[in-house]
Specification:
With 112 residues, this protein is of the alpha+beta class. 18% of the residues lie in helices and 31% in strands. It contains two helices and eight strands. InterPro entries: FPF1.
């Protein structure tokens, strides 16, 4: 992960492509690339939560239904928890990297 750390209004965040985004968060130009989550064994791009849930359940992840605003997955033998926004349009690269870290060699994040 590369980029520039920006501190604004008491919040620090990583700007992955500093040339495409200004300090205030607005986009500059169309050079920024969208990230996609890829299931590496099948080379399939995850396009919706139904596909992601199928892939995660095959790896032993179980769905939690406690929070109506989140999709949550857990593996019983670990302390790992994956929390995702209910709306797939709000599924961002930070969520993708969380899945990659918790499922080594099964997923990767790529530029589209």
């Amino acid at each position: 992960m590369s980029g520039v750390w920006v501190f604004k209004n008491g919040v620090v965040r990583l700007v992955e492509n500093p040339g495409a985004e200004s300090v205030d968060g607005s986009r500059q130009g169309s050079s920024s690339r969208r990230k996609v989550l890829v299931h590496t064994p099948s080379n399939e791009v995850i396009t919706c939560y139904a596909v992601l849930e199928r892939k995660l359940s095959s790896l032993g992840w179980e769905r939690y239904y406690d929070d109506p605003d989140l999709l949550q997955f857990h593996i019983r033998s670990t302390i790992h928890l994956i929390s995702l926004p209910k709306d797939f349009n709000k599924f961002k690269s930070t969520h993708m990297y969380d899945i990659v870290v918790k499922n080594r060699n099964m997923f990767e994040v790529r530029d589209m």
